[in-house]
Amino acid sequence: MRSLWKGSISFGLVNIPVRLYAATEDRDVHFHLLHRECHTPIRYQRFCPTCGETVPSENIVRAYEWQRDAYVPVEEEELERLPPAAQRTIRILDFVNLADIDPIYFDRSYYLEPMEGAERSYALLRRAMREAGRVAVAQVAFRQKEHLASVRVYGERVLVLETMHYPDEVRDPSPLRGTDQETEVDPRELELAHTLIERLTVCFDPGKYRDRYREALLELVARKAQGQRWELPRPQEPVGVESLLEALRESVRLAEAGART
Questions:
Q1: Which DSSP symbol is given to 139?
Q2: How do residues 89-123 score in pLDDT, each as one tens digit?
Q3: From CA 88, how far away is CA 8, in angstroms rounded?
Q4: What is the rounded end-to-end Cα distance, in angstroms, of the chain?
Q5: Phi and psi of 186, rounded to 5°?
Q6: What is the pLDDT of residues 159-186, one digit of tens each?
Q7: The pLDDT of residue 250 is above 80
Q8: Residue ranges in the chain assigned as alpha helix (H)
Q9: What is the pTM (predicted TM-score) of this model?
């Protein structure tokens, strides 16, 4: 694994230097888009429809849509002058029970690895949180954003940082039909529903769940690769000076021969 970030956990007056690694990976099947005629991968260009031309990166500026079709440009230097977030620090703010955090707030998971010399303080925080049954609520800045986050013990050995959504990033579900009030249900149906839930209740074993769509898709690709596989066309060899001279001489010779006949 390649670390994404280096910093430290700020735990009171204790700093624990750590590296951050992505804890999950994308296993989705991704497709390329090819030109059906020649099988060449399609390229996208940054095109301005007003000027009718492709725009080079040096002529592109960030802008925030303040109102519909009205933008405020923001230059790179202005972003750099903003007050820096808590750079390179996972700042622990509170400790809470994990059950108090609704899963809707969780975003992405990252492993935290102690840097050389920080193993003891890392183990201290890990053991203290495990024995207290608490998780830390923290703030950390990386990838040009200050994240709300939690730090918890995963699998007894590793500290995991979970980036979280801020409350105003979670949508209000009240406009959804059928969710704004408790609906009367038949007691017999409710009892049967409880019975069904009990019979389907097991210990969570993530290894028993498979992505059957991805498996079927990869089988389809493997099967088609046996009989229908498109190769990327080879780029044409550039014509060297000597070859160009030879081609021109041959062209002249053929033209003169054609004129004499």
A1: E
A2: 999 999 999 999 999 999 999 999 999 999 999 99
A3: 6
A4: 72
A5: -75, 125
A6: 999 999 999 999 999 888 888 777 888 8
A7: no
A8: 76-80, 119-132, 187-200, 212-225, 241-260
A9: 0.76
Kindly state the tokens that stand for 225: 């690769």
- Which has the closest alpha carbon to 111: 153, 164, 166? 153
> Distance of CA 47 to CAs 42, 74, 162, 202, 210, Å?
15, 20, 38, 54, 41
15: closest CA among 109, 95, 125, 103?
Answer: 125
Name the amino acid, one letter, at 261. T
Measured between alpha carbons, how far is 228 from 86 in angstroms, rounded to an integer? 53
Which tokens belong to 28? 């989705």
Question: pLDDT value at position 243?
Answer: 66
Helix (H) or strand (E) holding 53, with range, is strand 53-54
DSSP 8-state symbol, 99: G
Length of the chain: 261
Which amino acid is present at 32? H
Q: What is the DSSP letter of 105?
A: G
